[in-house]
Amino acid sequence: MKTAIIKIATNIVENIIELKQGAIWELPVGYYKVADNRAIKDATWNGTDFIAPPLPAVDNSGLTLTVRQFFIMLANSGYITPEEAITTAQTGIIPANIVVTASLPPKQALDIQITWAKMTTVARNEPLIAVMAKSLNLTKQEMDQFFIVGQKI
Fold first, then answer.
1. Is 59 exposed, middle or buried (0-12, 13-18, 19+ CB in 10 A)?
2. What is the dihedral of CA 49, 50, 51, 57, to 10 degrees?
3. pLDDT, tens digit, for every residue of 102-131?
4. How many whole angstroms from its chain centre is CA 119?
């Protein structure tokens, strides 16, 4: 049977061992054991169940797309029409519904317009993307998914 070695101070499973029947083993100071085949390393023991540790946060801020992937994703996702995708690819003009620059401070609007017109790659952590996500009412997870799917184009 699995035996969870649990730290008293945190109730977190530090190790899982299997003891043969009749084996003598001393616990280190500051630990207790629970014999249970459901034991999970790094889980929290609440006295009845093992609660799995949370999944680590995924940092997608380093994701990038080529401009081609980015414009195709905008069109494929329905955020711009195919015609708008072609126009913006040819001219560097931002489609009106993507980033409403009129509502931005003049310096930020200028930065975004120049960035859009001259970008060769689009980084997930680019301020332009935060403004675009806000304009489109997209969550961080939706923008992450946009970049993850876009990388497959």
1. exposed
2. -170
3. 777 888 888 888 888 898 999 999 888 888
4. 24
